[in-house]
Amino acid sequence: MGVTLKDIAEKAGVSISTVSRVINNDQSRPVSEHTSEIVWNYVDQLGYNKHKKNNQQNSTTTKSIGFILNDTPKIYNHPFFSVMLEGLEDEARKQGYSIAFSYTQADLEVPAIEHKLVSQEEADGVIIIAEYIEEKFFNELKDSFENIVIFDNRNPDIHDYDAINVQRREAAAEIVEYLVELGHQEIAFIGAALIGSNHDTVVHEDRYLGFADVMKRHGLPIREKYVKKADWEMGLAYEKMKEILELDELPTAVFVASDYMSIGAMRAIHEAGLEIPADISIVSYDNIKMAPFTNPPLTTVHVPKEEIGRQLVKTLIDRINGDIHMPLQIIAPTELKIRKSAAPPRQ
After folding, report:
1. Which residue segment(s) compose the domain that 240 sits in?
2. Beta-strand (E) ranges in 58-144?
3. What residues does the HTH lacI-type domain cover (predicted)?
4. Which of 307, 206, 298 is nearest to 261 (CA)?
5. Residues 234-288: pLDDT tens digits?
6. Are 293 and 336 in contact (CB under 8 A)?
7. Does residue 269 sit in the same domain as residue 206?
């Protein structure tokens, strides 16, 4: 096996990303002259040939890929992500690729695991499924893996990569617009109203923004007492729905930002002795496998989870094979699934 960036980094006592920045003359993140001299000294001593290595990588593949997943609890059993991962893993097998590694973002908070990831060269590329990726980590990952495809990144500082995204804001607006067309004006929201980052910035989650867009466009009130943060947890959504139902004035409808949370919210409504949709309408987002079987069947936004998983793999393999030359941005389509959980408000 030839000399690698890891070999040079260990000899020079610096990170792999630092070695890469020196060799590639990365002026966006300059390295001190002293450190550069040390790195180039070991490049010469060890006989590293960047162009030879690149040619070898282009002509030989390991036929394996890696995953980095978000921190959703029990992600492999989650009704949304499990379907996406099934499609992803099945497509990889069909294409003749194995899975070299699978880490969650929480795993990568352990320095030894993060070092192992950015140091290994046993995968041809990486698929990242995460709402927020730190720029520093992404740059280190790029130094180790030339081929990266991302689903759902919301960090505007990360760019120039292949990605598949869902227009959540627009899809959420569509289903809230449906409620307004039915005649609803007092509409509650349960979801993750805010997401934050380690940069101390806070941005509104897209489904909340879609909800707010429609309410503002129609001049309808967004009442603070009707906006609840449930952190994507079914049990917490149940509790937040109970809080809403204890108010003196109730909304006529509620938009819950995921079907998984909707199950908890629907239970709270039933326990309060109210009927869906006669007393209160409920709509949601994701169209998980359970959505048609709730009581009543849930009106929701369909997200093509399995197809997204398959497309992530196909896009990564196209990148590995050199069939993609510019950053590719794919928008996965969504579809409104109208069932029985929403109706005009009671007069």
Report:
1. 168-302
2. 64-69, 98-104, 125-129
3. 3-48
4. 298
5. 999 999 999 999 999 999 999 999 999 999 999 999 999 999 999 999 999 999 9
6. no
7. yes
